[in-house]
Design goal:
about 25% strand, alpha+beta, single chain
C-alpha cells in the first residue's frame, strides 16, 4: 500500500464525514420552525386570556406583539487523523488513525417584541365593528349566535347586555330576548332556513328566511321578537339603532372590540375569596341574590379558576395567585376564543373600511 493511497484514504474519510454533516442545516428548519410557531401561538393565547382576566379585576390591559424572530445557527465540525510510517530493514509498517469526530450546533435566537399602543390602536379598539365583518365571519362558517353575541350590542331594540361591556355591573344586565332571538337564528341556520348575506343589488346586508312548514313557528317567533313583518322573508340589516322596530329592516348596533372583550370577561369565574374581598364586583339580581353570568354566556364562554395548575387546559395563565384557564374539552369556549382572536386580527382593516364608508355617506 503506497503512501499516496493512505493519504487519499484519510482525506476521503474526513470529507465524507464533513459532507454528511451538511444535512444538519436543512434539518434545523423542520425541527425548529414548528417549535417557534407553537410558542408564538401559545403566548398570544396566554396574553389575550391574561387581558380578559385583567378586565375582570379592573386592571390595566396591555398588548404586545412578536414582530420578528431571527435565529442563527453555527456548525462546528472537526475530525482528526494521523498517518504513521515505521521503516525496518525488511518491512515498512503503515498505520492510519482516524481520531474523534465532533459536531456542534449552536442556536442563537433573537426575538423582537413591540408594544401595541398609540392612537391608531386605541381607535381600532373603541370604534364599533363594521357590519361587513360580521358577514365575513358568518360566511366563513361561524354560527350566527356566536358572532352576534360578540359583535352586536342591540338589534331592533333588543339589548345584548350593554352594561356588561365595561366594568362588571352591580346588577344583572338585560339580555334574555336578544339571547332567545339569536339562539333561534342559530337553530334555523343549522337547517339552512336562514341566511345572512348581501342584498340583491350588492349594497348592504339582509337576513333571508327560507320557507319551511316544519319550522314555521321558530321563524315566526324570531320575527315577532324583532318586530318584523311576519309575512316578509327578506329584511335589510342596517347599522345604527334608534330604539324603534321597523317592520321591514333589522337595525343593529355593533360593539367596539374593547366592549367585546369586556363582555367575554364576564364569563370568567373569579375565585370566591376575591369576590368576598371586593377585588372583583359581584353582580346581583333584583332580589339581591348572586347572578350567574352563565345565564348569559352559557354555550358561549367560560373561564374557570383554581389554586392549582390545571391538568386539562387549552390555555391557562396565572394571575393574582390563581390559575385561570379554558378547559380543553370545552369546545364552545375554545371556539369563541378562536373567534375573538380572528376579530382582533381583522378589526383594524374593517374599522378603516367602515369609517371610509361613513365618511362617503356624509359627503353624499
Amino acid at each position: 500500500m503506497s503512501h499516496r493511497f493512505l493519504y487519499l484514504t484519510c482525506s476521503l474519510s474526513a470529507a465524507l464525514f464533513l459532507a454528511g454533516c451538511t444535512a444538519l442545516g436543512p434539518s434545523t428548519i423542520s425541527a425548529s420552525r414548528p417549535a417557534y410557531n407553537q410558542a408564538v401561538q401559545r403566548s398570544n393565547d396566554q396574553e389575550l386570556l391574561l387581558n380578559l382576566v385583567r378586565i375582570l379585576y379592573r386592571d390595566t390591559t396591555y398588548f404586545t406583539t412578536v414582530e420578528r424572530i431571527a435565529a442563527s445557527y453555527e456548525f462546528n465540525r472537526s475530525v482528526s487523523g494521523s498517518l504513521n510510517l515505521q521503516s525496518a530493514a525488511d518491512a515498512v509498517t503503515r498505520t492510519l488513525n482516524i481520531g474523534d469526530a465532533t459536531v456542534a450546533l449552536n442556536e442563537q435566537p433573537t426575538v423582537f417584541y413591540a408594544p401595541v399602543e398609540g392612537e391608531k390602536f386605541v381607535r381600532q379598539m373603541l370604534t364599533p365593528m363594521n357590519p361587513d365583518l360580521l358577514l365575513l365571519l358568518v360566511k366563513s362558517g361561524w354560527s350566527l349566535d356566536r358572532v352576534f353575541s360578540l359583535g352586536v350590542q342591540e338589534m331592533n331594540g333588543l339589548r345584548n347586555a350593554p352594561s356588561a361591556t365595561g366594568p362588571t355591573p352591580a346588577l344583572e344586565p338585560i339580555f334574555r330576548d336578544f339571547k332567545e332571538a339569536v339562539r333561534l337564528m342559530r337553530f334555523l341556520q343549522a337547517r339552512g332556513l336562514i341566511e345572512l348575506g348581501k342584498q340583491s343589488g350588492g349594497e348592504g346586508l339582509e337576513l333571508r328566511f327560507n320557507a319551511s312548514e316544519e319550522f314555521f313557528q321558530e321563524a315566526l317567533r324570531i320575527k315577532k321578537i324583532l318586530g318584523l313583518d311576519v309575512g316578509g322573508n327578506a329584511f335589510a340589516v342596517v347599522a345604527g339603532s334608534d330604539g324603534q322596530t321597523p317592520g321591514d329592516r333589522i337595525a343593529i348596533s355593533t360593539r367596539p372590540l374593547m366592549s367585546a372583550l369586556g363582555y367575554l370577561a364576564q364569563g370568567i369565574q373569579a375565585p370566591e375569596p376575591d369576590l368576598e374581598a371586593g377585588r372583583v364586583q359581584r353582580t346581583r339580581r333584583k332580589d339581591g341574590q348572586s347572578f350567574d353570568w352563565q345565564e348569559l354566556l352559557d354555550g358561549v364562554f367560560l373561564v374557570r379558576s383554581s389554586l392549582e395548575p390545571p391538568q386539562n387546559s387549552s390555555v391557562a395563565v396565572q394571575y393574582r395567585g390563581s390559575y385561570f384557564y379554558i378547559s380543553d374539552s370545552d369546545l364552545d369556549s375554545k371556539s369563541t376564543f378562536v373567534l375573538l382572536n380572528q376579530l382582533m386580527a381583522l378589526n383594524g382593516y374593517y374599522k378603516e373600511l367602515f369609517v371610509k364608508q361613513l365618511s362617503e355617506k356624509e359627503i353624499n
